């Protein structure tokens, strides 16, 4: 009988690799949990509304994770018996909200993430908005190529007609067939009729297209009172869109964030130092610190002083995305019920220093989306999906029988006129 002696080094190496892989998974989950629950008030490296979280386990009572669990679940109760936590309240002027929904393993995942230097993004991934822009550009190129080919074919046809006429004349001359002199082009009724028909079709197409495009603002990029960069806020700092535009989750309008929302962070951020350089669409560099000073002027705030929100004035932002008055559109129906990503309609908002209207927002554009977008249909078997759609008994039977493999917005009435028009 042969016995194999286990290799201790290999076993140890395998264990280390497994542990590192497991830690990486936890850190990734922690990154998502951090972005969803902590990022609006905390940075990894700089104090904002709350303290920087990098190295948190090396400060105060947080070396014991049980203290961190208790703090996150109920900050007010923990602070009542802890001097360090009371000092945090005195320094930052507020108490962190409680997060009882976070399990201890979730809190541990967040801690593992903030204690691990985050990997730098590669920037090579294409987003839905970028793909849409690329597809649109390809479509425009195809239309130009098709137009050029059509013109070339028309010229070839005209040349062949002239060649055919010349050959016929030579044949008639050889056979001594006397024919009347050809009518000049400008007096030929057939040519005149064809020219008039082409002119009518092309002119009608151009007039119709121009009329359809009236009021559309694709590419509209107005100057704003403050050079607010979505690239810095939503891209670099990964602030969730719903933190500033929370109404989009439950209301028809996404709404403009109030001054309180801006100052929640900017009471502690008075200068622009470490972010990427900001540029105006014409290429001029923007001084970020000067733009924060404009915000302070609207807020009637002096850095380091108490702030009276009642004395603030709203920023007079210029609205970019406008729909006709007879069109009904609900952000909540799309963002909350439909789970539509902001980039689907607004483009790569996280890469824009100055926002512009990315999509044409036309009726055809909306209808095509309704034809292609699958709804989060309710599955009665496991209870998943949007339970509002449980009333569609026919579709449930069709899905069960295999007659349909999915349900789109079109199937549930997304093309009916009264859905979008008053």
Provide structural commentary.
This protein is mainly α and 422 residues long. It has four domains: 8-114, Orthogonal Bundle (Cytochrome Bc1 Complex, Chain D, domain 2), CATH 1.10.760; 143-182, no CATH class; 230-324 and 341-358, no CATH class; 367-420, no CATH class. It has 16 helices and two strands. The protein has helices at 8-37, 65-73, 75-79, 83-92, 104-114, 128-174, 189-212, 230-236, 241-244, 259-266, 288-299, 331-337, 342-346, 363-372, 393-401, 417-420; strands at residues 278-279, 285-286. A two-stranded antiparallel ribbon has the order 1-2. A hairpin with a 5-residue loop joins strand 1 (278-279) and strand 2 (285-286). Helix 1 (8-37) packs across helix 5 and helix 10 packs across helix 11. The longest helix is centred in the middle third of the chain and has 47 residues, at 128-174. The chain is elongated, with a radius of gyration of 32 Å. The termini are far apart.
